[in-house]
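Narrative progress, year one. The postdoctoral researcher (J.K.) led the effort to move from monomer predictions toward full complexes, under supervision of the PI. The following entry was the first complex the group processed end to end, covering 482 residues in total.
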Amino acid sequence: MSTLMQELNDKALALGVPLSVQLDVTYRCNERCIHCYLDHDDHGEMTTAEMKSVLDELAEAGVFYLTLSGGEILMRMDFFEILAYARALMFSVKLKTNGFMIKEKQADRIRNLGVESVQISIYSHRPEVHDGITKLPGSLKRSVDAVRFLMSRGLKVIVANALMRQNMNDYAGVKALARELGAECTIDPTITPKMDGDESILALRIPDAKLQEVFRDSSLFGNVEEFCAPPAPVGDDVLDSLPCSAGHTACYISPYGDVYPCVQFPLPSGNVRKQKFLDIWRHSSQLNEVRSIRARDLNGCSGCGHVGTCTRCPGLAYMEGNMRGPSWADCEKSFARTGIPSPNMLARMAAGSAAPAFLPASFSLVQIQGLTA
Amino acid sequence: MKNPSINNPYIARSPMVAARLLGGEMMIMSAVDSTLFSLNEVATAIWQGADGATRLEEIVRQHVCPEFDVEPALATEDAEGFVAELAAHGVLLVSDQPISAPAPPRESP
Ligand code: SF4
Ligand code: SF4
């Protein structure tokens, strides 16, 4: 984060301003990605007028960064009307899309509306792997074409590569493809439970051994020795720090108007169809509870050596049953990085339940390797 | 960095930027090159006065001098530098003619 961005973030935090909001305009999608956490049926999306009214309220609340996502944003026939309205309100808009429906005409419209960046999901450079994940034949070609159309119009494009077992060996290929296209590339091994709590898709998470390999790839993480070093002892500054931006300077709004601290933190905190956004932002007891939590309040994490460097996501912890507790996925990541198990992992092992059911069978082996390394 | 070619120009906010007031100061991001700016209160006043129909000196006289108690000549000199910098990033439009309705982005038909 640039210094100025950090300063603006600190200022927003001090003033209680929601600097960033992700608004999902629909959960409908033309792809059926095997790792997707959404229910794609329409259960009563906000109308165009409701969307515009929410955007008015967000602008009034001081929101600057607006991410429009889904589902697939272009499944809404009124998507460009919503986007134009958002840009007229001067948000810095980022789009997340699979790109399938972006042809030259749509790319022109996105460029003309002054969108800041477009993130397009690409799972593999190989059609059989990408299309196998999206379940939509021809989708890799269409997504890559979309990147080309947008790039050729001078837009900033980010290729997002979600890693799972099916494509875990292809991230280098995706990175090379992004480079060839002139786009940025992000790689994320996080797979979350479905919104209804179904954890079956967690079986798609890449095995620990692969995660270790990814974390030791210097082309992704630069100085691997530093990145994978055992964590240094932490002081009060870390224990008094905020877990993340969720509920502090950021939040998420679903197509049905439900407000949550983050797209990955499904704690219902209000609904913009029933209440003004600012009332929810300022007075929701759920958001205020999230705001009250500091690292030192986290059961298990506050005494964990990883607490200063862990990517612990309170949303994942919430989905596991306790937003003040550890997140197993992040215990795994900290372990894969450093080879040092968290107290949470050790406690589960001692209790005879080493890991949730979805954890790969390689867990104990990998851990022993880590401990003896 | 001044723009020597236009004396006392008309200025207008570019429709291609993102902008929001945060604690009295304007945050601006250029959609052209993603540069982020934070304008102080004086610059914010000039930005808000940049309607395309008013010349810079008049904007300074109307929005800056009374509010911030500065000499018009000095304030205009500072404003010229600020305008040139923002114009270089496509954040402000500068012209020797009035700039018609700097409308927010619209759908092209
Ligand atoms: S850590 Fe989790 S809850 Fe926090 S901003 Fe990131 S994804 Fe959202
Ligand atoms: S490794 Fe686990 S227990 Fe330790 S801080 Fe991260 S989430 Fe918490």
